[in-house]
Amino acid sequence: MKVLILAPFDAAELGRLRGVAEAVHESWVDERRMHSPDELAERVVAGGFDAVVVEAEFVTRDVLEAAPGLRVVASARGKPVNVDLAAATELGRVVLGTPGRNAESVADLCMAMLLDRVRHISAAARLVREGGWVVGLDDDSLVPYVRFRGVELAALRLGLLGFGAVARALARRALAFGMAVQAHDPFVDAAVLEEHGVTPRSLDELLASSDVLSVHVERTPQTVGMLGADRLRSLPRGAILLNTARPQVVDQDAIVALVAEGHLAAAALDVVAPEPLPAGHPLLGDDRILVLPHIGGATHDVVRRHSEMIREDLERLLRGERPLRCANPEVLDAVLPLR
Fold it and tell me: Which of 294, 204, 208 is closest to 246 using CA atoms?
C-alpha cells in the first residue's frame, strides 16, 4: 500500500507504518498549504496512492471519482466530516475516522476556560501586565483581592448539553473538582449517565438548574439555533456558558446581549462564526466573553492519538482484518482483503 499523509503525524507512528507500507508525509502544517479538491485528486493520481490521510483537506465526490485507485481515506478528525461519506460508500472506498482523538484535550481546555471565568485569571494577569495592581485600600474596586473575588467550582452545578466523548471526559474532571454534574442527551440512556456519576435531566431541567452550561452537541438540522435567546435566558441569573462544540448551536447575538445585561455572568467560546472574527465584532467587545481561536484539540497528544488509530487500522486492512474505526463498514465485505 502507498499512503499519502497530509495530516500532522507522530514520528514514531510514521516509522511503524513505514514498516508495512510506503508512506509519504506532507503535512499541511509543515507545508503551510492545503490542497484544493482538484489539487488533491491530482496529487493522489500522480503519486499512485492507494490511501490518503487528511485533516484539513476535503475528499469530495470529485476527488474520489478522479482517483479510482484511491481505496482508503482516513480522516484525522473526530468524525470524517471532511469526507463525502455517501460518495465513498457508493464507490466502495473505505473511510476511516479517529473518534475521540481530541476528547481529553478539549475537556482540559473546557476546565481551563471555566477556571478562567470563575477566578478571573486572564483579567487579573492583564491587570498586572498593565501596571494596575493596587495595594491601597482607598478604592475597593482597584484592590485585586476584592476585584477578582470568585467562587469555588465545588459550589457550582455543571450542565452538559450532550454526553459524547468530550462531555464524558469533562464530567470526570468536574466531579474531581467536587462539582455536581448533570446532562441532557436524548441518545444516551439515563443509566449510562448515572454510571458516570451524572444526573439525567430534560433539556428544560438542565437549563433551569445549571450554573455552568457546556455545549457538546454536533451541528445538525435539529441543533442549529438550539440555544436561542429564550433558552439561554432560562439559565439561572449569573450562569456561565462554555462552547467548544459548534458555534451554530448557540445564538451569538444573544450571548452578547445576555452578558451585557448581566443575566449571563460570563461566556467562554473556542468556536465562533465566522472564524476568525472580524475586528470590532460584538463578541470581542466585552471582557466577560472569552474568545479563543479554536484550539481545543491543539495538543501533541491528539496528533499522537490519531496517528496511532490510523496506523493501526491501515495495518488491519493490510492483514485482511476489519478496521476498528470504519465509518462505512458496509463496504468492507466487498473490498477485503485489499489487493
Answer: 294
Tell me which fold the domain 103-291 belongs to: Rossmann fold (3.40.50)
- 147 assigned to active site: no
DSSP assignments along 135-197, one per residue? --SS-GGG-HHHHT----GGGSEEEEES-SHHHHHHHHHHHHTT-EEEEE-TTS-HHHHHHTT
Q: Which of 130, 195, 275, 330 is catalytic?
A: 275
Catalytic annotation present for 294: yes
The counts of H helices and E strands in the chain are 15, 12
Rounded Cα distance between 153 and 195, Å, is 22
Domains 2-101+300-335 and 103-291 share a fold: yes
What is the domain partition of the chain in residue ranges? 2-101+300-335, 103-291
What pTM does this model have?
0.94
For residue range 246-262, list pLDDT tens digits in order.
Answer: 999 999 999 999 999 99
Average pLDDT over residues 77-94: 97
User: Of the residues 35, 157, 184, 246, which is catalytic?
Assistant: 246
The per-residue pLDDT for 104 is: 98
Could you tell me what percent of the chain has a pLDDT over 90? 94
In whole angstroms, give the CA distance from residue 228 to residue 255.
9
DSSP 206: H
CATH class of 2-101+300-335: alpha beta
218 pLDDT band (50/70/90 cuts)?
Answer: very high
Paired with 289 in beta bridges are: 267
> In the numeric block, which cell numbers belong to residue 25?
508525509
Cβ partners under 8 Å of residue 280, min gap 6: none
Q: Of 294, 304, 316, 322, which one is the catalytic site residue?
A: 294
35 is catalytic: no
